[in-house]
């Protein structure tokens, strides 16, 4: 005797197949030149570019992502056709969580059913996700703590050793908008020495003696206001898809320190002739 659950599941699967077949003939083609975009709501979503889908880890589908030039995506909530029970029977979705059919239309192949999953939240484009990651990097990136040697003061005509006091790379794995994201940010710096010399752009963080990788020689005495600007270049991946650039403009930090510069004087030490 066939169990009611198996009957329900077969019924829902058949309904999904019929529904998808009818949808394949009615999806509109997105412009091949359109950028990542997404719109829709409870009745379904349509979009272009790279799209990430928050997924229930218990469903076995996880997070789906893909990029396809000139393609469009359509997500159709199948549960709307049979009620909340359909999601539970078909894909073990928690009550109230929709199961969506994922349709892809490409210029070469046309519309194609590529899978489905339980959906924990609304879809998000790579651009929008990148903006969220940029905000996270701005929040979590350590501030510069610049310093110099000799600690008391610099001396004219002699190299002063500098350090920025920041890591060259920060890397995180985090949940952002319900999606597991690996992001990495690499630092570069621009030093303005507070004198008439040109600014220095570098990827070297400097250090303490005997590290001479970041130095500057002051020519005139006085207190110099040295400024250092940090720029973080960030990118991210989702389930090995990517890397994608983090948008929203440069991620910058700026700080300054005062460096007293004294004039170096030669001291003649005579030999004892007595």
Would you mind describing this structure in some detail?
The chain is an alpha+beta fold. It folds into 2 domains: 4-122, no CATH class; 126-262, Immunoglobulins (Immunoglobulin-like, Sandwich), CATH 2.60.40.10. It has helices spanning 4-24, 79-82, 84-91, 126-140, and strands at 37-41, 44-48, 51-53, 64-66, 72-77, 99-106, 110-118, 124-125, 147-149, 154-155, 159-163, 169-176, 179-192, 200-202, 215-217, 222-238, 241-245, 251-262. Strand 12 (169-176) and strand 13 form a beta hairpin. It is rod-shaped, with a radius of gyration of 30 Å.
The CATH homologous superfamily of the largest domain: Immunoglobulins
Estimated radius of gyration: 30 Å
Number of strands: 18
Number of domains: 2
CATH third-level topology of the largest domain? Immunoglobulin-like
Shape: rod-shaped
Largest sheet: 7 strands, mixed
Q: pLDDT under 50 segments (min length 5)?
A: 1-36, 56-65
Query: Helical residue percent?
Result: 10-25%
**Elements, N to C (H/E):** HEEEEEHHEEEHEEEEEEEEEE
Distance between the termini: 120 Å
- Integer average pLDDT: 75
Helix segment count? 4
Strand content: 35-45%
Given helix and strand content, the structural type is: alpha+beta
CATH architectural name of the largest domain:
Sandwich
Supply the CATH class of the largest domain: Mainly Beta
């Amino acid at each position: 005797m066939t169990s009611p659950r198996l009957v329900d599941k077969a019924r829902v699967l058949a309904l999904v197949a019929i529904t998808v077949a009818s949808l394949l003939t009615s999806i509109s083609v997105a412009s091949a030149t359109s950028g990542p975009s997404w719109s829709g709501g409870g009745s379904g979503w349509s979009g272009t570019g790279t799209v990430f889908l928050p997924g229930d880890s218990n469903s076995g589908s996880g997070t789906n992502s893909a990029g396809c030039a000139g393609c469009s995506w359509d997500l159709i909530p199948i549960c709307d056709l049979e009620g909340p029970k359909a999601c539970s029977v078909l894909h073990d979705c928690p009550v109230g969580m929709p199961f969506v059919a994922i349709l892809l239309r490409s210029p070469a192949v046309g519309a194609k059913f590529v899978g489905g999953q339980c959906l924990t939240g609304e879809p998000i484009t790579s651009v929008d996700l990148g903006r969220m990651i940029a905000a996270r990097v701005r929040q979590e990136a350590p501030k510069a703590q610049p310093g110099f040697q000799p600690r008391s003061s610099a001396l004219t005509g002699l190299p002063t050793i500098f350090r920025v006091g920041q890591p060259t790379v920060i890397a995180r794995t985090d949940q952002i908008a319900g999606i597991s994201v690996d992001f990495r940010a690499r630092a570069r710096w621009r030093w303005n020495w507070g004198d008439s010399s040109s600014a220095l752009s570098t990827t070297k963080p400097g250090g303490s003696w005997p590290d001479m990788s970041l130095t500057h020689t002051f020519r005139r005495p006085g207190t110099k206001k040295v400024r250092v600007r940090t720029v973080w270049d960030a990118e991210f991946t989702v389930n090995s898809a990517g890397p994608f650039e983090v948008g929203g403009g440069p991620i910058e930090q700026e700080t300054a320190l005062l460096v007293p510069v004294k004039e170096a004087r030669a001291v003649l030490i005579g030999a004892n002739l007595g």
